[in-house]
Each structure stands twice: as structure tokens, then as C-alpha cells.
Write a structure and sequence with these properties.
about 240 residues; four-stranded parallel beta sheet
């Protein structure tokens, strides 16, 4: 059973669940991935902790991590990019596999581009300030294109806020504007490095999604592979 540290935000967690189900090659209920989901929105805000020295979410994240493991989770995933600022702390002392969404999304971007390609980022200001994607993309030989402060303030962050409030019709055009701006400024591919971003972009017509890596989808596909590997290992041990 895969444990999910969710609730950041709730709709993004629901989107992740939907994408895991869609990515699973199942013919009946029993072939789907068993998930144990903590969809708890009371985790202290990640941007405030990173940018303003606010309350750290780490104690709450550790509590959720341990509760999921105690309840039977054999691996963990966390569908929130900004929360991966604390991923190394969460891995420390963790007794089950806990892959990084950042590495998974960057691997997906590298697989679709050639070396020295320019990768645009749609992300919260906190994710950008923490540099979560910079080193990971550089290690894969890719360059990073960050959004301007103006794009963050007028398009990207308002779109994310609209998704958190359930206003998808308002979020869609703003997110499309942000993605198109990155492409216009030289991005070969855009990583939707916020789990609200693909929800917003899906609310508008067009082919912009095809020019993006959806970090939620990348994690969902990796989660399916993780379960398949775990199930295969269990079958071998039982043989």
C-alpha cells in the first residue's frame, strides 16, 4: 500500500488520485494501486515558512509520515512540490521508500529534451526561492528559465490561488498566460512545478499542456511503477 502525504492542497491531492487511477493498467478493482491517503489541509503553509520564517510544516509532515507507515504504508509519495523543501528531513529515519517528486519531474523533463535545453518553471515563489529544481535540472544538463516577478504576481500565483479556492474558470486563462510567456521567452519545455498548475491549465482549451511536464502526472506514473515493483517483489518472495 502506498501512503500519500496530501492536503497541499486538497484539490491537487484529488487530481493526483485521479491520475494514479488513469495511469494504472487495470481491468478490475483488484488491479488498481492501493493508496492510503492523508488529505489533511491543516499542514502549516509552506511558502510562509520558507519566505517569511513562519511555522515550519516539518513536525506535522513527520507526524503524518509516521502515521501512514504505522497504518501499513510500504512506500510514500508527496504530491506537493514546495513541501519537498523538507524532503531530505522526511527521508531521514524513514523506513520505507520515499521518492522525490522533484527528481521524478526533472527526469520526465530530461526524457523529453536534449542536453542544454531550456526548461521553464511554473512554481510558487517559495519553490523558486528554495531552488528545488535548479540543481536537479543542472545535474541533468538542462538550463532553467524562471518566471519574472511580474508574471508571478499577475498570472502564476493568482492562478494557483484560484485553484485552491476552486475557481478553475478564473485560474485557467492566467495559467495559460504564464506558460505561454515562458515559451515565448525561450523555454523548450515547461515543468508545471506546482500541483495546482496542471489543474488550472486543464481548464482552458488548447495544446499548451502538450508543451509541459505535469509534475502530478509524472508522480502518479511513478507511483504506479513503484507499486508494480513492490507487488512483483512480494510475489517473488512468496514463490
Amino acid at each position: 500500500m502506498i501512503g500519500v502525504i496530501g492536503g497541499m492542497g486538497p484539490l491537487a491531492t484529488a487530481d493526483f488520485l485521479h491520475k494514479v487511477i488513469a495511469a494504472t493498467p487495470a481491468e478490475d478493482d483488484e488491479q488498481h494501486v492501493p493508496l492510503l491517503i492523508s488529505n489533511d489541509p491543516r499542514i502549516p503553509r509552506r511558502p510562509a515558512a520558507i519566505l517569511q520564517g513562519g511555522e515550519s510544516p516539518l513536525p506535522r509532515l513527520l507526524e503524518i509520515r509516521d502515521r501512514l507507515i504505522q497504518a501499513g504504508a510500504t512506500a510514500l509519495v508527496m504530491p506537493c512540490n514546495t513541501a519537498h523543501h523538507w524532503h531530505s528531513d522526511l527521508q531521514r529515519g524513514c523506513t520505507v521508500p520515499f521518492p522525490s517528486l522533484i527528481d521524478i519531474a526533472c527526469d520526465a523533463a530530461a526524457a523529453r529534451t536534449t542536453e542544454s535545453a531550456c526548461i521553464g518553471l511554473v512554481a510558487t515563489r517559495a519553490t523558486l526561492a528554495a531552488g528545488l529544481f535548479d540543481a536537479a535540472l543542472a545535474a541533468r544538463g538542462r538550463r532553467v528559465l524562471r518566471p519574472t516577478d511580474a508574471t508571478l504576481d499577475t498570472a502564476m500565483l493568482p492562478a494557483i490561488a484560484h485553484v485552491k479556492a476552486g475557481r478553475l474558470a478564473q485560474a485557467g486563462p492566467l495559467m495559460a498566460q504564464a506558460v505561454q510567456g515562458l515559451l515565448d521567452h525561450g523555454a523548450d519545455l515547461v515543468v508545471l512545478a506546482c500541483t495546482e498548475a496542471p489543474i488550472a491549465l486543464a481548464a482552458v482549451p488548447g495544446d499548451l499542456q502538450g508543451q509541459c511536464v505535469d509534475s502530478t502526472l509524472a508522480l502518479a506514473e511513478a507511483t504506479v511503477r513503484l507499486w508494480q515493483q513492490s507487488a512483483a517483489g512480494s510475489a517473488l518472495r512468496g514463490a
